[in-house]
């Protein structure tokens, strides 16, 4: 074993390893210490080892995992806030937090402020103070949860930064993720503002936030969540170098990445469905009413406007994207059986396939049942679970490489 070890060490610095947990840096060509915490498998002269940039810093990993879990929670809370129509109850915003009213006078003042805005005037004239308190608290907890994420991210991040725990790559990523958290807060208020403006037509219109801003808010949340999760995976379960003797592995990796992209795209189109209440226009599946292609699909002029402003077209697009995503994921799932993949990738591919069918089933049920709060929230959480599995699969495939037979 010792001979084998010294032989491998001689191949190149990249391939060096030690049966102990750490080796000092190679004095000839490396400047930094290299970690090789585990030698995975050594079989038929093929090495399955942790790559150069593998970071096995568990503390960073758990911190990233906590932040991503908190973002998951914020998305679910945000979805419930929207579905219970609580989002427009707080009519002002302060960067560092609004104060929860503590006396009857303060509550009455807050209620009077709400009465100046379209949601009260056009839809909620009958609302009681007690009901108002309930919707106000929903929005308040959503905002405060977002601020907690900011703190749980920023404080440890600054400490780790000064302790020089981050690799070069992660220093840049951490700055981007911090920027995303800030942007998410600002975008949240920009979105709420669009529902407070006096831009609604007559008593039949429903005051709601702009679907464009809702989609931007949700997309940012999804990007932030996936980046934090990737940080957790990189530190807790680094991807393995894994040779595969099948030349179509590259195409399989491209298909896996495309499926992840499609999950994003379908989720964004879902935000348009949610933003326009388009889940309530045709509540049958697979046909829309008794047609495959409803008559009002291109009612708006110019035609392009239909894709983001006509509830029928928006629902139609979401169905098409949802089923296309399902087909792609099915292909990934079935194809994954053809390769000798790392165990993590195998598991992720199976879970990804099963979750895609579950998510589509929940989506269809949500539609057929006229979007009850619990199903709407479940469907939204399902999209995050699907995105997590896509992120995990592509992470596991990162260093899977084609080798000649
Ligand atoms: C891969 C498949 C799918 C993904 C990733 C996905 C994702 C999403 C997301 C993220 C939302 C926004 C939720 C919100 O902001 O509250 C949404 C909304 C919605 N989706 Fe899907 N969806 C998928 C497939 C489907 C399918 C096949 C259907 C039904 C045919 C469907 C029906 C709906 C409905 C009715 C809504 C509106 C719910 C609401 O108003 O809150 N989805 N979807």
TrEMBL record:
Membrane topology: Multi-pass membrane protein
Recorded catalytic activity of this chain's protein: Fe(II)-heme o + 2 A + H2O = Fe(II)-heme a + 2 AH2
Pfam families in UniProt: COX15-CtaA (PF02628)
GO process annotations (BP): heme A biosynthetic process
GO terms for MF: heme A synthase activity; metal ion binding; oxidoreductase activity, acting on NAD(P)H, heme protein as acceptor
UniProt subcellular location: Membrane
Keywords, alphabetical: Heme biosynthesis, Iron, Membrane, Metal-binding, Oxidoreductase, Transmembrane, Transmembrane helix
Cofactors named for this entry: heme b
Keyword Transmembrane helix: yes
Entry's transmembrane regions: 59-80, 144-162, 174-192, 212-233, 261-282, 318-335, 347-368, 374-393
This protein's pathway: Porphyrin-containing compound metabolism; heme A biosynthesis; heme A from heme O: step 1/1
Primary residence: membrane
Oxidoreductase keyword on record: yes
Single GO cellular component term: mitochondrial inner membrane
Name of the protein in its database record: Cytochrome c oxidase assembly protein COX15 homolog
Organism of provenance: Parthenolecanium corni
């Amino acid at each position: 074993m010792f001979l084998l070890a010294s032989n491998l060490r001689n191949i190149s610095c990249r391939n060096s390893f030690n049966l102990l947990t750490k080796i000092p840096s190679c004095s000839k060509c490396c400047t930094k210490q290299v970690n090789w915490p585990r030698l995975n498998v050594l079989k038929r002269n093929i090495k399955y080892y942790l790559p150069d940039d593998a970071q096995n810093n568990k503390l960073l990993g758990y911190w990233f995992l906590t932040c991503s879990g908190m973002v998951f929670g914020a998305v679910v809370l945000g979805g419930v806030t929207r579905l219970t129509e609580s989002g427009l109850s707080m009519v002002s915003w302060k960067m560092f937090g609004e104060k929860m009213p503590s006396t009857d006078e303060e509550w009455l003042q807050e209620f009077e402020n709400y009465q100046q805005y379209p949601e009260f005037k056009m839809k909620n004239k009958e609302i009681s103070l007690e009901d108002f308190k309930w919707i106000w608290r929903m929005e308040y907890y959503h905002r405060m949860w977002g601020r907690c994420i900011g703190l749980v991210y920023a404080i440890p991040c600054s400490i780790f930064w000064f302790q020089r725990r981050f690799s070069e790559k992660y220093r840049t990523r951490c700055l981007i993720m911090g920027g995303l958290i800030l942007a998410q807060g600002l975008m949240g208020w920009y979105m709420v503002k669009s529902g407070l403006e006096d831009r609604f037509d007559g008593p039949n219109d429903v005051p709601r936030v702009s679907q464009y801003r809702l989609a931007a808010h949700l997309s940012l949340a999804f990007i932030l969540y996936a980046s934090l999760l990737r940080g957790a995976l990189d530190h807790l379960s680094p991807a393995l170098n894994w040779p595969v003797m099948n030349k179509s592995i590259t195409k399989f990796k491209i298909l896996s990445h495309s499926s992840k992209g499609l999950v994003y795209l379908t989720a964004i189109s879902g935000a348009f469905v949610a933003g326009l209440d388009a889940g309530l226009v045709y509540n049958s599946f697979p046909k829309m009413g008794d047609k495959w292609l409803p008559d009002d699909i291109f009612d708006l002029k110019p035609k392009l406007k239909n894709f983001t402003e006509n509830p029928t077209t928006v629902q139609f697009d979401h169905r098409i994207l949802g089923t296309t995503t399902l087909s792609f994921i099915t292909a990934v799932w079935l194809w994954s059986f053809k390769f000798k993949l790392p165990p993590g990738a195998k598991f992720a591919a199976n879970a990804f396939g099963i979750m895609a069918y579950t998510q589509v089933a929940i989506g269809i049920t949500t539609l057929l049942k006229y979007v009850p709060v619990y199903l709407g929230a479940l469907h939204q959480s399902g999209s995050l679970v699907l995105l997590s599995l896509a992120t995990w699969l592509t992470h596991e495939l990162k260093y899977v490489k084609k080798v000649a037979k």
